[in-house]
Design brief:
- By secondary structure, this protein is an alpha+beta fold.
- The protein has 2 domains: about 170 residues, Gcn5-related N-acetyltransferase (GNAT) (Aminopeptidase, 3-Layer(aba) Sandwich); about 35 residues.
- Helix content is about 40%, strand content about 25%.
- A 7-stranded mixed β-sheet has the order 1-2-3-4-5-7-6, sandwiched between helices.
- Strand 6 and strand 7 form a beta hairpin.
- The radius of gyration is 22 Å and the shape is elongated.
- The structure holds coenzyme A.
- The site of coenzyme A (COA) has 19 residues, from helix 1, strand 4, helix 3, strand 5 and helix 4.
Length: about 210
């Protein structure tokens, strides 16, 4: 069964926190300092998981065993990282993507990234963006393999994150919308070409008369 995305519900918060704790422990065991300074936020804070769930920004992927992945997708460009020159409103921002260790290694992360690119395209945005922990070079390599480009690295002493990546929003190949867009494009080109031919014929006919 392929895990499908759904919006997280308030009662999913505990399972999402477990995923976060598992990821932090996995990273620590690998010698990474990623997320080592991050603590669970007070549920009353607008930056908390609970507030994100209430705003409809937190997503989960479930299989028969329960929640196996989570990601937050919002349109809030972090003003410490993205500037006006980045046209920050032209993107959706992917945060806290985590796949459980039990489900890892099966391209679920790639599926989540494709889904985010699809949602961004649906909303008329041109980019999916994220900021990654600066020292997590293995993660940077992963995002480059997923088609992201490195935009720049913002080195703020009070932040561990700051490696900025973006990828084009698009409709993943083979989806109905992708087929629709391609068909619409081909029909549009064909109609334009037919219009030109009709004009040429009309002009040549008028020359003859
Ligand atoms: C990133 C993630 C969602 C991808 O899930 P996935 O598609 O199942 O892919 P995998 O877990 O197999 O990871 C792919 C590769 O990225 C590496 N990687 C993943 N997260 C990494 C991290 N935070 N730091 C360094 N390397 C990382 C993995 O070691 C693996 O490397 P390999 O191909 O050389 O074995 C998942 O690895 C994860 O939850 N990572 C920890 C949390 C995290 O860093 N999320 C990103 C926040 S910006």
């Amino acid at each position: 069964m392929n895990p499908r995305p759904s919006l997280a519900r308030p009662e999913d918060a505990a399972a999402i926190r477990s995923l976060q704790d598992e990821a932090r422990a996995w990273l620590q065991a690998r010698g990474s300092d990623q997320w080592s300074t991050i603590r669970h936020t007070d549920p009353a804070s607008p930056r908390s998981l609970e507030a994100g769930i209430d705003r409809g920004e937190v997503w989960v992927w479930r299989d028969r065993s329960g929640i196996v992945a989570t990601a937050t997708l919002d349109d809030g460009a972090d003003p410490e990282l993205w500037t006006a020159d980045d046209t920050p409103d032209d993107a959706l921002y992917l945060h806290r993507m985590i796949v459980s260790r039990a489900a890892a290694g099966n391209h679920l992360g790639a599926t989540i990234i494709d889904w985010a690119a699809h949602r961004a395209a649906d909303l008329g945005r041109h980019w999916v963006r994220l900021d990654a922990w600066r020292s997590s070079t293995g993660l940077h390599a992963y995002y480059l393999r997923q088609g992201f480009q490195h935009v720049r690295t913002v080195d703020l002493p009070h932040r561990g994150s700051g490696a900025l990546f973006q990828r084009r929003a698009y409709y993943p190949a083979g989806t109905r919308l992708d087929t629709f867009m391609k068909t619409a494009f081909i029909v549009g080109i064909s109609l334009t070409a037919l219009g030109y031919i009709a004009l040429l014929v009309a002009f040549s006919v008028s020359d003859w008369t």
